[in-house]
Design a protein that fits this description.
Length: 291
């Protein structure tokens, strides 16, 4: 039964008049009469009776009104609850550096806006998360890359993320006012595991193009481990600026004065082009793209 009929029944019972109910609801009186007659046929009993000019509920009508008031109240509550409290799950795939150093403040705000939302954050390799966004396992993906990661996905540039070379505070190269690529010939590097992060390949290519060998002292898979090894004098490292910003500000690492146009990445947001945009997902994207 259409809830409209129950709302009409409630209004007629309140107004004790088909005419006044019609005026209140904006219907023709004939429409009000038709709806009440349909309800009476549905339940097989008269719902109203007339005493002279006055309209009043029958005993079955009074019983039905009590139930109708509860049903309409529950319906109104459900609408209010669903529109004001969003639940469900938002699944985010990203790389370790963004999961650890970039996303937490945005996730904190999102959780405050949608307390009932279950947020799942999965650090993953770039190739794996691209596949999972394409196949719908992740609602959204965030990576660092130089070019659109996948032509089958909607790739949005959020911002440019610089890569910086960091060294122990007493490293000889920290004394230089400016560093050239040739100055790295005797330097020992701490790098990410081969194929783990795109910027290792970028840096290796840059050195190779200028005939500078890459001296690898340590090959590690964890950015925190790499930072601590650099701080302990084991070598220098190329890392996203967001991963070392705190240590640079606190004077725990030295920023080597070297820059190159090839040493920067785009923070990219990946979505399947047919992805349904829930309100939390829309809000999350707005957070990231309006920073």
């Amino acid at each position: 039964m259409d809830l409209t009929y129950f709302r009409t029944f409630r209004e007629v019972a309140r107004r004790k008049s088909f005419t006044r109910a019609a005026e209140e609801l904006g219907y023709a009186q004939s429409s009000i009469t038709m709806q009440i007659q349909k309800l009476e046929r549905e339940y097989g009993v008269p719902l109203f009776e007339r005493y002279g000019r006055q309209l009043r509920l029958t005993a079955p009508g009074e019983s039905l009104l009590k139930l109708v008031l509860q049903m309409l109240d529950l319906y109104d509550q459900s609408k209010e609850m669903i529109t004001s409290e969003v639940s469900g799950t938002l699944t985010i795939g990203t790389i370790n550096s963004l999961a650890a150093y970039y996303l937490p403040p945005y996730l904190h705000v999102l959780k405050q806006l949608y307390p009932g939302l279950n947020i799942q954050l999965f650090p993953d390799s770039e190739a794996s998360l691209i596949t999972k966004v394409r196949e719908g396992d992740y609602d959204i993906g965030l990576i660092l890359d130089r070019y659109p990661a996948d032509t089958a996905l909607a790739c949005t540039k959020v911002r440019e993320e610089p890569l910086v070379l960091v060294a122990p505070l007493e490293h000889p190269l920290t004394k230089r006012a400016q560093i050239q690529l040739t100055d790295f010939q005797q330097a020992e590097f701490i790098v990410t595991e081969e194929g783990c992060i795109i910027y290792r390949g970028m840096f290796e290519k840059l050195l190779k193009d200028h005939a500078v060998p890459l001296q690898i002292g340590f090959e590690l898979g964890n950015l925190e481990t790499i930072k601590h090894c650099v701080m302990n004098g084991l070598g220098i490292a190329l890392l996203p600026q967001i991963a070392v910003q705190n240590e640079l500000e606190q004077g725990k690492l030295a920023h080597l004065p070297f820059s190159h146009s090839d040493l920067k990445l785009d923070l990219q947001l990946l979505l399947h082009p047919k992805k349904w945009m829930s309100q939390p997902l829309q809000t999350f994207i707005q957070q990231l793209t309006q920073e």
